[in-house]
Design goal:
The protein is mainly alpha-helical. The protein has eight helices and two strands, in the order ααββαααααα. The chain has two domains: about 100 residues, no CATH class; about 60 residues, no CATH class. Strands 1-2 form a two-stranded antiparallel ribbon. The two termini are about 30 Å apart. GO terms for molecular function: hydrolase activity, acting on ester bonds. Pfam families: Phosphoesterase (PF04185).
Length: about 180
């Protein structure tokens, strides 16, 4: 679910799969602009089938989303920024469109209060999850990722305590080899 909101992927599961999750009731909508008297509202629908490109999550995009080009945190730029890319970013999947997620929601606990550690792209957030700091990183600098970061991670503590574990990755590992 990386780079997707909870409601985008699992929100509609509330109606037919698990009524206990904090999902969509079909009453939700967002104003496109908060600067006009009667702003156009985008309603959250369940008719997305495919999303391309990914929702923007660069440092600049997140800054626009939370600041909306202001100096005060207003949290008012999400809709405008998403619509600048694709209206699909403000829609969700029906449960039958994502059957694996539907089965997981039906059978397991769902964490529906999950927030980004820091308003930045993927790698700085992973660093924060692993070590409670991004070490100042605000973007995906492949060279720095390959070299590693100096802070200890939760995995270092696991190793120091003699516990076995594994880390699986597809491209560049997001942790360094401590051994």
């Amino acid at each position: 679910m990386e780079n997707r909101s909870f409601n985008h992927m699992l929100g509609w599961m509330k109606k037919s799969v698990n009524p206990n999750i904090n999902g969509i009731t079909s009453e939700e909508g967002n104003p496109v602009s908060t600067k006009t008297q009667k702003p156009k509202t985008i309603c959250f629908t369940d008719d997305v089938e495919f999303v391309n490109p990914d929702p923007e999550h660069s440092f600049e995009a997140v800054e626009q989303q939370v600041l909306r080009f202001a100096s005060v945190l207003s949290m008012t730029g999400f809709v405008e920024q998403a619509l600048s890319m694709s209206p699909n970013h403000l829609q969700g999947f029906r449960p039958e469109s994502v059957p694996v997620y539907e089965a997981l929601v039906r059978e397991f606990v769902v964490f529906d209060r999950w927030f980004s550690s820091i308003p930045r792209p993927t790698q700085p957030n992973r660093l924060f999850v692993y070590s409670a700091t991004s070490h100042g990183s605000t973007s995906h600098v492949k060279k720095q990722l390959a070299q590693g970061y100096p802070q200890k991670t939760i995995f270092d503590f696991v190793l120091e305590n003699g516990l076995d574990f594994g880390i699986y990755f597809q491209n560049i590992p997001t942790t360094s080899d401590s051994e």
